[in-house]
Design brief:
The chain is an alpha+beta fold. It contains 11 helices and 10 strands. It has helices at residues 5-16, 19-24, 27-38, 72-85, 122-133, 145-158, 164-175, 217-221, 226-240, 244-259, 265-275; strands at residues 41-46, 53-59, 62-68, 94-98, 101-105, 111-112, 181-183, 192-194, 200-202, 208-210. Helix 5 (122-133) crosses helix 9 (226-240) and helix 10 packs across helix 11. The longest helix is centred in the last third of the chain and has 16 residues, at 244-259. It is globular, with a radius of gyration of 19 Å. GO terms for molecular function: phosphotransferase activity, alcohol group as acceptor.
Amino acid sequence: MNLDLDAIANRLEPRFGRAAHRWVGTLRQRLDDLVEQWELTLGDPLKSGNSSVVFRCVGPLGDAVLKLSPDSYAVREEVDMLRQFASSGRVPAVRESAKGAVLLEAIHPGTLVEKMPQPPSPREYAAFLTDLHGAGDPAAAPRQLADWIDVLFNSATRRGADLSGSKRLRDDLFAVPTDTVLLHGDLHLGNVLHGGGRGLVAIDPMACAGDPCFDAVDYVLEGLDRAEMVRRRDELASAAGIDVGRLDAWCRVTAPIGATYVSNPVHSAELAAFGRGEY
């Protein structure tokens, strides 16, 4: 395989610094070792972010995905949390794992939900959330939702977001006890795949323990205008049996964060307005 090691190192460097170059220097040998150990036929690289490299492959159990990262702790956490969610059938099965590497079941067709011409219906998404939240043990979570929200707030603040309203709403939400589940934690629609007859499948969890409404916010806020966001909010809450008031509040907490990420200025403005309760 013709790997552009310089390009991989440059992609990983913003996350890992110069250590990315040292890690990439060992990548070919690491791949050779895993191919032999797990009896793989390695395929093409897949698009990934700044924390890992990912390859299509075929193993003894069929099509798979091989993921490697310099952050062995993050890989270990991902493996543990995918196994927590495994009984739901809504995450890829873990086939093998080693330090800094995991072999996952390939999902077919595997289309990113954010790329689908039509989004899943609120009823379909509610079934997905119900299955996912019914599987894991919140006591196994590596973090609490409050800690994860702080990370998101800090990142958004660095990008110039005004989070004064979000922080007030967050405090109000945490002041009222509610059910606690094992959350995926990062369920934007780029982390949800279409699995054909299997339905929706989640990847790349940032698992935490907290309010089940939190995992529903991205589906709502992916609506391109406030009318669509309100429709999704109300129909999803009804289908999933979750508190529409809490879902609305969590959407308003996170909408200003989302507004700093999206490239479409119209959608960004709609998110900011939703966060202010202007609907």
